[in-house]
Design brief:
The complex is a heterodimer. In chain A, the strands form four sheets. In chain A, strands 3, 4, 5, 6, 7, 8, 9 and 16 form an eight-stranded mixed beta sheet that branches. A five-stranded mixed beta sheet of chain A has the order 13-15-14-17-18, sandwiched between helices. In chain A, about 40% of the residues lie in helices and about 20% in strands. Chain A has two domains: about 190 residues, Thiamin diphosphate (ThDP)-binding fold, Pyr/PP domains (Rossmann fold); about 110 residues, 3-Layer(aba) Sandwich (Rossmann fold), CATH 3.40.50. Chain A is an alpha/beta fold. The radius of gyration of chain A is 21 Å and the shape is globular. By secondary structure, chain B is of the alpha/beta class. Chain B folds into two domains: about 280 residues, Thiamin diphosphate (ThDP)-binding fold, Pyr/PP domains (Rossmann fold), CATH 3.40.50; about 70 residues. Helix content of chain B is about 50%, strand content about 10%. Chain B contains 14 helices and ten strands. In chain B, helix 7 links the parallel strand 5 and strand 6. Classes of the chains: A alpha/beta, B alpha/beta. At the A-B interface, helix 2, helix 3, helix 4 and strand 12 of A face strand 2, helix 3, helix 5, helix 10 and strand 9 of B.
Chain lengths: ~400, ~400
């Protein structure tokens, strides 16, 4: 990925005391996002408010759309008109966005969507935390889709991962979803925004070659292909129908195979480059706790207590949720007694862990149906059980 | 078949504005969308706008396929979401002219919320709505505009819902330009689209159009040409008409014309004004200050004016050549003025004819000739000749009437 220094106009360098939602908006501005379309929904609204407040001085545009369907649709338009763009929502809003998330995947449109998760299903717990949309992020849209999803555990990471989300989104031309949660979204902590020249940003890559060679797509299972920008005179065509590289509809089984394989492989085939994990004493451990987001910070307490008791516990924090770190789980499962997976849902990412562990070790799910974070004691109990 | 297409491609005067590599299109014989697209292409040409800066966005459905046939930057989006996608394009690059071309099921049904909110914001978009009272692509279901007791596949015993009158809806929502025509009024459609392309703000153009395959057949209303005849008989031209009076009953009167044209700040103008209050005169959007953007807009307007002047001169020269008049500048002006008068004079009798004439016998001749033309290709010439002969009494019958 070729990067350049961030545009200083959008970078509010220095130490701040801010919540995760505000850090998402600051991360977007630092990454060069100049278009934000959103709809108010607790607990993500603060991110939209921050962007709306900052937009005039940065030279960006904020629009509050009539609903989430329109918000993400506006992003698709804005992206093809040349802007880096973002929206923020949570469960009920994300459910509406799923429609055009499919169109964005199909048309390979770069954008960043933050889902500040709250308890569900339905209206559920508007002001309380959860991690219940992990599977929806990947499996929400109909048909086979592949997206990238990142999961920050702190306001600082909300900033850092938003910049990274934009970079991945631009390079792989795919919607990138930031799966944070109400706790991180509303948690105030120190956030240090680096100087602009220390923030690496992947700039929008617009096609500039001869018209006759202009192809909005290339189905080779790789990233790095340029976008075509509206108004540049290439008369591009974009459709949600199965299409050829020119963008024209070709509705055959063969073509669908080409398109879908490309959409899946440009992410899965580059999983090693995309995936980021945070590991602590995994090698030599008997038990590994696989966690993500706010739950990983609760797990730290349980892990520390378990180590005091002499249990060899490692920690694997998922920063990248999708694509899933299949290879690493396979490696670990061959060496440990058990993997403990605490998460604030009825057991979602544990399914991926079980699938990749393939019976080589025990996999213990520590569920919590949302509304609060875990009691560390519950995780500690699971670790103790796992070590026996 | 293939030779026909090649001839069509080579000979089409619209070759530069349509994607000829996508022909033949998917629309049925007698459908109104084709002629609307033709009017649109003509309007783009006549408007003088830079086609590179034009983006066409469609939703889903028969009309949703328009984006795939126009030779501009074009997006075929999801069902009902053409307007928010267009909103994103326009706001992300205000230099672009953005047109939404879609059907009434797409725009007023599934996308109804986006339609009213774009109108409320006075978003700078041109929305062209093909209203054929039916969901064509899915097989003829009832739509939010299906009038009266019309049959649809999902109202097999007759429609019992109250339909939208789209001009009224758009007026209430705040649209600043509202016109309605039928697909028979090609020139008016062209003119309205041309006006809309050159103005700022939310423009809504509704085009009542026949769906012979589903709506007309199911309601035993004949074919496309019969319906055009209905439009001719039942259209009432009322510019500036109160939009409360624009409801359409089953095969009833259709009020047509330009109902609303007013100016108010667009979304972007309003948001600029607010931002300037906050940031001051050095406020920039996407790195450009307001005076810079205004200067660019002015330059673009001048270019458009120059293109229009060049086109007018070219037209006048053609007119002059056809009259074998020696072409000098004053002569061109004179011919131009004459042509304008002629056009104005032409427009009037049409209106009268719409209100008055009952031309049933003409209808039959045209209606019979049309399907033959489509069905059998080899003796096409003969049929055309026959049709011309049969059509001949049309003039005499009209003359007779006026004599009386």
């Amino acid at each position: 990925m070729k990067t350049v220094a961030a545009d200083p106009k959008g970078v509010d360098s220095g130490p701040h005391f801010m919540d995760g939602d505000h850090a998402l908006a600051e991360g977007a501005l630092a990454a060069g996002c100049r278009f934000f379309a959103g709809y108010p929904i607790t607990p993500s609204t603060e991110a939209a408010e921050r962007f709306a407040e900052r937009a005039p001085e940065v030279g960006a545009l904020f629009i509050q759309m009539e609903d989430e369907l329109a918000s993400i649709a506006a992003l698709i338009g804005a992206a093809w008109a040349g802007q880096k763009c973002m929206t923020v929502t949570c469960g009920p809003g994300f459910s509406l966005m799923v429609e055009n998330l499919g169109l964005a995947c199909m048309t390979e449109t770069p954008m960043v969507i933050a889902n500040v998760q709250r308890g569900g299903p339905s209206t559920g717990l508007p002001t309380l935390t959860a991690q219940q949309d992990m599977m929806q992020a990947k499996y929400g849209p109909h048909g086979d889709n592949m997206i990238i999803a990142l999961c920050p555990d702190s306001p600082q990471e909300c900033f850092d991962l938003t910049v990274e989300a934009f970079n991945l989104s631009e390079f792989y031309r795919v919607p990138v979803i930031i799966l944070t949660d109400e706790t991180v979204g509303h948690m105030h902590e120190k956030v240090v925004i680096p100087p602009a020249d220390q923030i690496n940003v992947v700039p929008r890559n617009n096609y500039s070659g001869p018209k006759e060679d202009c192809r909005p797509y290339k189905f080779d299972g790789k990233g790095g292909h340029p976008m075509v920008r509206a108004g540049d005179g290439y008369n591009f065509h974009v459709t949600g129908l199965t299409h050829n590289e020119r963008g024209y509809p070709v509705m055959t089984a063969e073509q669908n195979n080409k398109v879908v394989t490309h959409l899946m492989e440009k992410i899965n085939g580059n999983a090693d480059e995309i995936i980021r994990l945070d590991e602590d004493q995994v090698d030599g451990a008997d038990v590994v706790v696989v966690s993500y987001g706010i739950t990983s910070r609760i797990a730290v307490k349980a892990i520390q207590d378990a180590r005091k008791e002499g249990i060899k516990v490692g920690s694997l924090r998922l920063i990248t949720i999708w694509p899933f770190c299949e290879k690493r789980i396979r490696e670990i499962s061959a060496r440990v007694k058990a993997i403990v997976v605490p998460e604030i849902n009825y057991g979602q990412m544990v399914l991926e862990v079980e699938r990749n562990a393939g019976g080589r070790c025990k996999v213990i799910s520590v569920n919590h149906c949302g509304g609060a974070v875990h009691d560390p004691q519950v995780i500690l109990d699971a670790i103790r059980k796992a070590s026996q | 078949m293939s030779t026909d297409i090649i001839t069509f491609k080579a000979g089409s005067p619209m070759a530069s504005t349509l994607r000829m590599d996508r022909m033949p299109h998917i629309w049925c014989p007698g459908c109104g969308i084709g002629s609307e697209v033709n009017s649109f292409a003509e309007a783009v040409k006549r408007s003088g706008i830079d086609p590179k800066k034009l983006v066409v966005v469609s939703g889903i459905g028969c009309t949703g396929r328009v984006a795939g046939y126009v030779n501009f930057d074009s997006m075929h989006t999801t069902h009902g979401r053409a307007i928010p996608v267009a909103t994103g394009i326009k706001l992300a690059n205000p230099e672009l002219t953005v047109v939404v071309f879609s059907g009434e099921g797409d725009l007023a049904g599934i996308g109804g919320n986006h339609l009213i909110h774009a109108a409320r914001r006075n978003m700078d978009l041109v929305v062209i709505c093909n209203n054929n009272f039916t969901y064509g692509m899915t097989g003829g279901q009832v739509t939010p505009t299906t009038p009266g007791s019309a049959m649809a596949s999902t109202t097999p015993y007759g429609n019992y819902e109250y339909p939208f009158s789209l001009p009224f809806l758009m007026d209430a929502a705040g649209a600043t330009y509202i016109a309605r025509w039928t697909s028979m009024h090609s020139r008016n459609v062209t003119q309205s689209i041309e006006e809309a392309l050159l103005r700022k703000g939310f423009s809504f153009i509704e085009i009542i159009s026949p769906c012979p395959t589903l709506y007309l057949r199911r309601n035993r209303l004949g074919d496309g040409v019969d319906q055009l005849q209905n439009y001719q008989d039942n259209s009432i031209l009322k510019h500036g008409c109160d939009t409360r009076e624009t409801a359409i009953d089953f095969q009833g009167k259709i009020v047509i014309g330009k109902f609303v044209e007013k100016n108010k700040p667009t979304y972007l103008e309003a948001s600029d004004k607010c931002a300037v209050k906050l940031v001051g005169d050095d406020y920039q959007l996407y790195g450009k200050t307001i005076p810079e953007r205004e200067a660019e807009e002015k330059a673009e307007k001048e270019k458009i004016a120059a293109r229009r002047a060049a086109m007018a001169e070219e037209e006048a020269q053609e007119e002059a050549a056809s009259h074998k008049v020696s072409v000098s500048a004053p002569a061109v002006k004179e011919v131009l003025a004459k042509a304008a008068k002629k056009a104005a004079a032409k427009a009037k009798p049409v209106r009268k004819a719409v209100a008055k004439a009952k031309t049933r016998p003409v209808k039959k001749t045209v209606a019979k000739a049309q399907p033959k033309k489509a069905a059998s290709k080899a003796p096409a010439k003969k049929v055309v000749v026959k049709a011309a002969k049969k059509a001949a009494p049309k003039k005499t019958s009209k003359l007779n009437k006026t004599r009386k």
